[in-house]
Amino acid sequence: MFFIASKIFWVFARPLNALFVLALLAGLLALSGRRRAAGWLFALSAIAFALIGFTQLPDLLLYRLERQIVQPELPPDPAGIVVLGGGLYSESAARNGDYHLGEASDRIVKGLELKRHYPQSRLIYSGGLSALLQQGVPETSAAHHLVEALYGDTRGIEFEAKSRNTWENAVYVSQLAAAEKTRPWLLVTSAFHMERSLGCFRKVGMNVIPVATDFRADPLRFPYLSGDMAGQFLKMNVLVKEMIGLLAYRLTGRMA
Hints:
5 strands
């Protein structure tokens, strides 16, 4: 139920969708004769659109989120490496039997880099079907194809294909880690996603050390304007979704 509710809620909470709903509501108010209220709503949606699309406000807010967790020194002999899914498009794997790198593909690259540095450590790639209708193949299928294409085999990597969200990543990986979960594990995910991920894995009793990657915020440059409206809205999507996720996970006791 939590998974389904979160997916439905995000359809309306996505910033561009939310602004469209505000503008639509303003239009309905204008048609009903409430012109003053309609004017305020139109102005609010226009200002929000301009701030998100044409300034570096998304970069500023996302930068702060990405730097919440300080990178500690890595241990000499970790039990394993956990790479959270999100960097590969499972839909493409389902259509083409191949892999398709996504925006967060830094995650799997960093995981493979760490595996080379710690060849004796286990590597678990965790990512199933995150789509609401659960059609297609899990993301681990694309990861499997990618690793085989690079190395000719799976390099002993373990693939956890049941998880649909961050909480389930933690639950199913902790089951695979079993008796070793109190030893240090390196947790690889996007910088904006690290705070929530750490909270979930520590909640299930795993001793995880953050290894953040996939930093998205651009450096702030005077006069703090942006010509990439689509890119800025994508960053705001990431920020808003993660802030909602942090709040929901804390309220439902899914974070330590």
